[in-house]
Amino acid sequence: MKKENLLITGANGQMGSVLVKELQKIYGEDHVITSDIRTNENFNGIFEILDVTDGNKLNDLVKKHQITQIYHLAAILSASGELNPIQTWDVNMKTFLNILEVSTVNAIDKVFFPSSIAVFGKNAPKIKTPQDFVLTPSTVYGMSKVAGENWAQYYFKKHKLDVRSLRYPGVIGHQSLPGGGTTDYAVDIYHKALAKVDFECYLKNDRTLPMIYMEDAIRATVELMMAPKENINVRTAYNLSGMSFSPEEIATSIQKIYPKFKIKYKIDFRDEIASSWPSSTDDSSAKKDWSWKPHFDIDQMTEIMITELKSTNSKNIKV
Ligand code: SER
After folding, report:
1. Whole-model pTM?
2. Pick from 185, 147, 153: which is nearest to 264 by CA?
């Protein structure tokens, strides 16, 4: 069997830090090259400092480690992006174009590019938003993802580069903290519940968004990347569903375990972003092409989140 060597950019991030461990299990620690703009002592295995806006450094690392697959997770998310639109466009686009060019020149086998529900805009149907609905994003982050999806398809058609992509919902996991996203509240709320403090939510109580439990998000990524090439019919990015809920509903789910837990609301600009996104998406293409099926609903997720965060907290308490 051919030896695969994987490069993960943005490995320190919310998804990266969990995906790396899963890929290390599959491919072996020596075959997963983790990278980020800052060092990270939490990884076993190989780590390289990499700012992906530096195409030459990227090219050097790809050659040095004989990379065959790239998972490009480095990006600025939706809420941070709105605070610095031009820089967000520059970073998100320049990094991805560098990945596509370097991958083509070095004949990389497969590239993973995370897209997002943020590609959709206010005009899209809120419920079960179709895969092929016209994309009119409201944020710079969403605009960079739409452009990225189209560049992915372009490189596939023009250079036969096997780029695969998912439109992630908000990702919720106990292992890592998100940063700069609009859906981050749904991770933060568990930390507050555990600390036994009220949670102040920046989204409206009934602002329903598509979400996914981390384990499902990681499995979707691995299943998509392992699917036979001829099954991948969507070369922009697949809609991907896990569950959907509002702040009120996640609070209710937490109250089943912590009845005294309270949520209050202080709406900010992130609610405007969320109001332009779907409440759920139609992921029948993912189901058909590579048999996607989520495993976790909101109450199962709440139980695991609280159990795992409790156990992490107790390990961290120094006696
Ligand atoms: N979770 C992301 C965000 O909130 C959306 O892809 O920005």
Report:
1. 0.96
2. 185
What's the angle, vertex CA 189, arms to CA 186 and CA 195, rounded to 5? 155
| Substitution site in 183, 209, 272, 275 for ligand 1 pocket (most atoms within 8 Å of beta carbon) | 183
25: Cβ contacts below 8 Å, ≥ 6 apart: none
Contact 302, 193 (CB under 8 A): no
Predicted confidence (pLDDT) per residue in 149-160, tens digit = 999 999 999 999
Structural tokens at position 307: 């159990």
Closest residue by Cα to residue 103 from 112, 93, 115, 111: 111
pLDDT digits (tens, 9 = 90+) for 182-226: 999 999 999 999 999 999 999 999 999 999 999 999 999 999 999
**Tokens 């009220």 — which residue?**
198
Per the CB < 8 A criterion, the answer to whether 26 and 45 are in contact is: no
Dist. CA 141 → ligand 1 center (Å) = 9
- Say whether 196 sits in a helix, a strand or coil: coil
Domains of the chain and any CATH numbers: 6-169+214-239 (3.40.50.720), 171-210+242-276+296-316 (3.90.25)
Please give the distance, rounded to the nearest whole angstrom, from the Cα atom of residue 118 to the centre of ligand 1: 7
Determine the residue of 116, 120, 167, 188 to mutate for testing ligand 1's pocket, defined as the one with the most ligand atoms within 8 A of the Cβ atom.
Answer: 116
CA trace torsion 34, 216, 125, 119 (10° rounding): 0
Instruction: Say yes or no: CB of residue 274 within 6 Å of ligand 1.
Output: no
Question: Is ligand 1 within 6 A of the CB of residue 116?
Answer: yes
